[in-house]
């Protein structure tokens, strides 16, 4: 299987890409010479990681028949000061909300995604240290 995308320069620093029928616009901030018409490319790498592992966890929890009220994936990352600016590490924070949630099953779902299923995190792990944490709020 191969994936292919085509990114088209529109104007100034604005690029557009059709991803699975969805238009994605990338741009720079105004103070960097852009029009702020879309997110920055590096942050989209973090979005991809959060979305990939988040989808895994939700699907695993559905199979476990775990009912969560809320779920967020936050990614914290350091970045180099010199060029090429790049991420130096990633910490994935899985945040759950619900009543009497089974901590062991939530942790297992996160661990499965982190260690086995999330291809985006697997690519990151080849480049930088990646860790995770599970937080549960009883609501």
Brief sketch in words of this structure:
This protein is α+β, with helices and mostly antiparallel strands and 139 residues long. It contains three helices and six strands.
Please describe what this structure looks like:
This protein has helices at residues 41-64, 103-117, 119-125, and strands at 7-11, 14-19, 22-26, 70-79, 87-98, 130-138. The termini are far apart. The longest helix is centred in the middle third of the chain and has 24 residues, at 41-64. Strand 4 (70-79) and strand 5 (87-98) form a beta hairpin. It is 33% helix and 34% strand. Helix 1 (41-64) crosses helix 2 (103-117). By secondary structure, the chain is of the alpha+beta class. It folds into two domains: 1-39; 41-138, 2-Layer Sandwich (GMP Synthetase, Chain A, domain 3). The model has no long low-confidence stretch (mean pLDDT 97). A three-stranded antiparallel sheet has the order 1-2-3, with no helix packed on it. A three-stranded mixed sheet has the order 4-5-6, covered by helices on one side.
């Amino acid at each position: 299987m191969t994936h292919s995308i085509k990114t088209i320069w529109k104007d100034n620093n604005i690029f557009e890409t059709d991803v699975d029928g969805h238009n994605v616009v990338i741009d720079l901030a105004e103070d960097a010479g852009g029009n702020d018409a879309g997110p920055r490319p590096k942050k989209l790498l973090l979005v991809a990681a959060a979305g990939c592992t988040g989808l895994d966890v939700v699907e695993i929890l559905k199979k476990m028949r775990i009912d969560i009220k809320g779920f967020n994936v936050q990614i914290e990352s350091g970045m180099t000061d010199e060029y090429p600016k790049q991420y130096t590490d990633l910490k994935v924070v899985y945040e759950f909300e619900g009543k009497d949630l089974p901590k062991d099953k939530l942790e297992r779902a996160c661990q499965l995604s982190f260690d086995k299923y999330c291809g985006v995190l697997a690519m990151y792990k080849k480049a930088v240290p990646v860790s995770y944490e599970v937080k549960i709020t009883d609501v």
